[in-house]
Design brief:
The structure is a single chain. Strand 11, helix 11 and strand 12 form a beta-alpha-beta unit. The protein is an alpha/beta fold. The protein is built from 12 helices and 12 strands. The longest helix is centred in the middle third of the chain and has 15 residues. The protein folds into 2 domains: 55 residues, DNA polymerase, domain 1 (Orthogonal Bundle), CATH 1.10.150.530; 274 residues, Alpha-Beta Barrel (TIM Barrel). The model has no long low-confidence stretch (mean pLDDT 94). It has a 10-stranded mixed beta sheet. Strands 5-6 form a two-stranded antiparallel sheet. Helix 1 crosses helix 2, helix 4 packs across helix 5 and helix 10 runs parallel beside helix 11. It binds S-adenosyl-L-homocysteine (SAH). S-adenosyl-L-homocysteine binds next to strand 8 and strand 10.
């Protein structure tokens, strides 16, 4: 097992079994996530025997950044994993801090037809440490702390549930990266049973749901997952989620020219979301060379926005970062692998 995939609780259990004081867990976390040492032997205040044990039981292999593309307020990173697969992460500079969009799987099985990532089927889930190390390696490279993390890169986080919740526990730890739960966002295409499971997860993490259509028929065409979990089931689960957690939901809605951007789509969306504590993030589509979808016209976007606003739905149009550096979800990976 990799050291970056071990929670503080697991580390304490390990220390106890090996008859070391459990407060070393906190120190190990500080060394690896705050002082960012590359070898456990640099943790100078730990007993030598413990360092040897850790070296043997928990290797500290990480990911390798093999490409960086810089835009104005955005940088995109391509990582190579130990089995030579590739994933990507996008760093965005906001006035409130640095936000990193990370991947959760190699490939994706959700098959949303507008999405570049899904053109390659899921190869495997990312291990917990591979999610943690996307943040750590970028922090090391830029010498700054990342304050916000969104799981909106390649993959469906709820299709890798166990590793994702462990990832949250690790990066949230005070003595480690200390990323506040409210600064973490999981984005899902709507896997209903996992939404029920997630309501009982005791961290105040944000949940974003990729909706992209307010009519079931259209949603099924865009997102195959809607055939398994239709809107009615999805909305019932989400209402329960809000009731139970008291948290505000985010809905993501990509605007695709002539497909889901008409007035009736907006009116139906307002109707669907009425009374739910949520806000809608309208996303101007990032066009990619492999897919035929076009982004909606500015006037259409403005009209869509107005209809929601007038229906008292909280709505924003997503600020764009990635356009100039092919930061549409999954684009860098496709360019590298030419798939
Ligand atoms: N599987 C998860 C998270 C990954 S996708 C989910 O579906 O939410 C993260 C977001 O990026 C989703 O809302 C997805 O629909 C959106 N997205 C995918 N391709 C895009 C593109 N070319 N332009 C803009 N947004 C895109």
């Amino acid at each position: 097992m990799n050291l970056y995939g071990v929670s503080k609780k697991e580390l304490e259990k390990y220390l106890k079994e090996k008859k070391y004081p459990i407060y070393y867990a906190k120190e190990i976390y500080q060394w690896i996530y705050q002082k960012k040492i590359d070898s456990i032997f640099s943790a100078s205040n730990l007993p030598n025997s413990l360092r040897k044990d850790l070296e043997q039981d928990f290797p500290m292999t990480s990911l390798e950044i093999i490409k960086e593309q810089k835009g104005k307020d955005v940088s995109k990173y391509l990582f190579r994993l130990s089995d030579k697969e590739h994933i990507e992460a996008v760093l965005m500079r906001h006035d409130y801090g640095l936000s990193l969009c990370i991947s959760s799987q190699v490939g994706c099985n959700m098959g949303c037809c507008f999405c570049e990532s899904g053109r390659r089927k899921k190869v495997r889930n990312l291990e917990t440490y591979e999610m943690v190390c996307q943040i750590l390696e970028i922090e090391k490279r830029i010498g700054k702390r990342i304050s916000h993390v969104v799981m909106m890169g390649i993959g469906e986080p709820f299709d890798n549930y166990e590793n994702v919740v462990k990832f949250i526990e690790i990066v949230n730890e005070d003595s480690g990266m200390n990323i506040g739960a409210r600064h973490l966002t999981i984005s899902t295409c709507g896997i209903v049973p996992k939404i029920y499971e997630f309501m009982n997860f005791p961290y105040q993490v944000n949940l974003a749901v990729s909706l992209h259509a307010s009519f079931d028929e259209k949603r099924k065409e865009l997102m195959p997952i809607a055939k398994v979990y239709p809107l009615k089931e999805l909305m019932t689960a989400l209402k329960k989620y809000v009731e139970k957690t008291n948290r505000r939901l985010t809905f993501e809605y990509i605007l695709l020219d002539g497909i889901n951007d008409q007035e009736e789509d907006a009116r139906n969306l307002a109707h669907l979301l009425k009374g739910i504590n949520c806000y809608v993030n309208l996303i101007p589509y990032n066009e990619t060379t492999h897919l035929q979808y076009k982004r909606s016209k500015p006037l259409t976007i403005a009209k869509f926005y107005d209809i929601l606003k007038k229906s008292n739905i909280c709505v924003t149009i997503r600020r764009e970062f990635g356009g100039t550096i092919s930061a549409a979800c999954g684009q860098l990976r496709s360019e590298k692998e030419e798939l």
